[in-house]
Amino acid sequence: MAVELRFEQGMFRLRSGDGVEERIAVERADIEAFLDWAQRYEQATTRKDNQALLAIGREINTWLDKRALEKLHADERHIHFATVARPDADQLAFLDVPWELIADRDGYWAQDAIVSYQPARLLGPLTQPAAPAHADLFVLFMAAAPLGEIELDFEAEEVPVCLPYRRAQRWNATAGLGPGARKGAQRHRLGWLRLRSRCNRVRQDLLR
Asked: Domain-by-domain residue ranges, the chain?
């Protein structure tokens, strides 16, 4: 079960997987720390400074201990960092914290081979996701290269996406297919043609 650290109405609400909730008042020093970590994270990633990133992760971990949020150190660290659906400036600072970097003296939580750390950000209350609709699967391929960077080989980028459809098409073309399999082959071929058409249209739009 996920643990939720929610920031709303001036409080940190720490809810464990069993539903038990603790509340801790937010202090101005917390917001200042959030802003500082986000700014230093951006600078460290620009410089590719791994030591600075690790230091930020350890500071975040120290803050958790200081603010009595030890429940986040559980063996299964599936954690939701949550706010209201329309966060204010302080709540945005909370969401901007690079929670993925949390580290202890042994290194990043995310690199721990034993402990599963799965951070996620959540806006609004946690709700049950809608049931999947059973229908044909459509895939839209799109690739883009930032201006001033090395130009992508768009054809090469397209191959890993479209190749499974080509393989399915060849497999369904095998002799000896029964009526049901032939119908499936027709669906796969139609799906591939639709995908290829959409890929071509996207490529043409990007080149205009």
From this structure: 3-123, 130-208
